[in-house]
UniProtKB/TrEMBL annotation:
<keyword id="KW-0808">Transferase</keyword>
<keyword id="KW-0328">Glycosyltransferase</keyword>
<dbReference type="InterPro" id="IPR050481">
    <property type="entry name" value="UDP-glycosyltransf_plant"/>
</dbReference>
<protein>
    <recommendedName>
        <fullName>Glycosyltransferase</fullName>
        <ecNumber>2.4.1.-</ecNumber>
    </recommendedName>
</protein>
<dbReference type="Pfam" id="PF00201">
    <property type="entry name" value="UDPGT"/>
</dbReference>
<dbReference type="InterPro" id="IPR002213">
    <property type="entry name" value="UDP_glucos_trans"/>
</dbReference>
<dbReference type="InterPro" id="IPR035595">
    <property type="entry name" value="UDP_glycos_trans_CS"/>
</dbReference>
<dbReference type="GO" id="GO:0035251">
    <property type="term" value="F:UDP-glucosyltransferase activity"/>
</dbReference>
<comment type="similarity">
    <text>Belongs to the UDP-glycosyltransferase family.</text>
</comment>
Length: 434
């Protein structure tokens, strides 16, 4: 019987893509395994539901591409659940509860897979924690894959919240799991990794092994289309452009967008800005004439380029003309910036991003921080100051040099004999032995 690895990602872009990349990585290095990836669907909610979109950022195109280029990965769509007894407006709560409603389907699928192959590992996102008991009841070794850093996520801060309860469950299950996989590399997060593997997080039993197998970077969009913004970058001087992009959930008010525009213009720096419409119409194309200050596009046309909604982030970061990155500090964005050696200004918006910023700015010093005012607004003057500092100051140069050094370490980590490469080999060995 074939040795099967089953992956169970949370369907948001940031989570799903890293999990699929993990599947590709396993296959590249250990092609004897077969990989099955389970895909959760958007639930069929009734029209009065206040629940937010569950599947954040479309991944359909990405999945289709991987499916056609990597035949040894098979995707299995779980049916959408029809009755969602939820009135939650919390994205985190929804992310934890939808997999729970899918447990019966999951049980069936895992049993079916077990009839034709030997499941050596079931690797789940922490949001899919509800699956832990299903898999352990079937005696399938279960691992957690952290698509964020080895840090603590946001919900830990409020002990009365439902999210906190879910997180406690995750922690209890993780301690009993067969191992933890993290999309990071040893030298990026030396301290937290040491703390976890040293047993500090699991006082009453042995800590499961931790495998830092990153950075996993997806640049599959790169050769699919010819992007206008990449052509524009071709005409800019080396390392002269600051890139602003805030992830699949990062949205700003109209007021904040104006402040950004003024700050960029006053900074005098070249910029490439991915702009999304303010909520609630954030899926619509933004109307730039309405959102930007009068005459902004005309005045900045020599120096700036505004992209509506989306840009191929890795291809942009890798471009020689890009010299800085204003980011929401989402973990994938951080890894991509490190991978491409681009220094950052950290502007965290949600989830564990605030914590990422603290680590990035104060601990590993790969980013400059932005100061928000009390109402959460970042003023034009503050953005102007930080962007100038990043692109054109001694402090900026120091950050750039550190990122560049860490970039080399990241490349080394995933090469033959590097820490992440070795970690994956150990994991595969473990699976073969079981
Ligand atoms: C993947 O490819 C197979 C074979 O070409 C096809 O039958 C299947 O529907 C595809 N699945 C997805 C999710 O695109
Ligand atoms: C951030 O703002 C506060 C209050 O305005 C100020 O005291 C502090 O120095 C600022 N920090 C930085 C890094 O500029």
């Amino acid at each position: 019987m074939e040795d099967a690895i089953v992956l169970y990602p949370s369907p948001g872009r940031g989570h799903l893509i890293s999990m699929v990349e993990l599947g590709k990585l396993i296959l590249r290095n250990h092609p004897s395994f077969s990989i099955t990836i389970l895909i959760l669907s958007e639930p069929n909610t009734n029209t009065n539901s206040t629940a937010p979109n569950y599947v954040a950022g479309s991944t359909t195109k990405y999945i289709t591409t991987v499916n056609s280029t990597t035949p040894s990965i098979s995707f299995h769509h779980l049916p959408p659940i029809s009755e969602v007894p939820l009135s939650t407006s919390s994205f985190v709560e929804l992310s934890y509860s939808i997999p729970r409603f899918n447990n019966q389907n999951l049980h069936q699928i895992l049993k079916t897979i077990s009839q034709t192959s030997k499941p050596k590992a079931f690797i789940i996102d922490f949001f899919c924690d509800a699956a832990f008991e299903v898999a352990t009841n079937l005696d399938i070794p279960t691992y957690y894959f952290f698509t964020s850093g080895a840090n603590l996520p946001e919900p830990w801060k409020d002990r009365t919240s439902k999210e906190y309860q879910y997180s406690l469950n995750v922690a209890a299950h993780m301690a009993k799991s067969n191992g933890l996989l993290v999309n990071t590399f040893d030298l990026l997060e030396t301290k937290p990794i040491k703390a976890i593997s040293g047993g500090l997080c699991v006082p009453d039993r042995p800590t499961p092994p931790i495998f830092c197998i990153g950075p996993l970077i997806s640049d599959s969009n790169q050769d699919v289309e010819d992007y206008e913004c990449l052509n524009w970058l071709n005409s800019q001087p080396s390392r002269s452009v600051v890139f602003l992009c805030f992830g699949s959930l990062g949205l700003f008010s109209a007021k904040q967008l104006k402040e950004i525009a003024v700050g960029l213009e006053n900074s005098g720096q070249r910029f490439l800005w991915v702009l999304r419409n303010p909520p609630p119409d954030n899926e619509k194309d933004p109307n730039l004439d309405e959102l930007l200050p009068k005459g902004f596009l005309e005045r900045t046309k020599e120096k700036g380029f505004v992209v509506k909604k989306w840009a191929p982030q890795v291809a942009v970061l890798r471009h020689d003309s890009v010299g800085g990155f204003v980011t929401h500090c989402g973990w994938n964005s951080v890894l991509e910036a490190v991978w491409c050696g681009v220094p950052m200004v950290g502007w965290p918006l949600y989830a564990e991003q605030r914590l990422n910023r603290v680590v990035l700015v104060e601990e590993v010093k790969l980013a400059l921080g932005l100061n928000e005012s009390e109402d959460g607004l970042v003023s034009a003057a503050e953005l102007e100051k930080r962007v100038k500092e990043l692109m054109d100051s001694e402090v900026g140069t120091e950050v750039r040099e550190r990122v560049s050094g860490l970039r080399d370490e990241a490349v080394t980590a995933v090469k033959e004999g590097g820490s992440s490469h070795v970690a994956l080999a150990k994991l595969a060995e473990l699976w073969r032995q079981n």
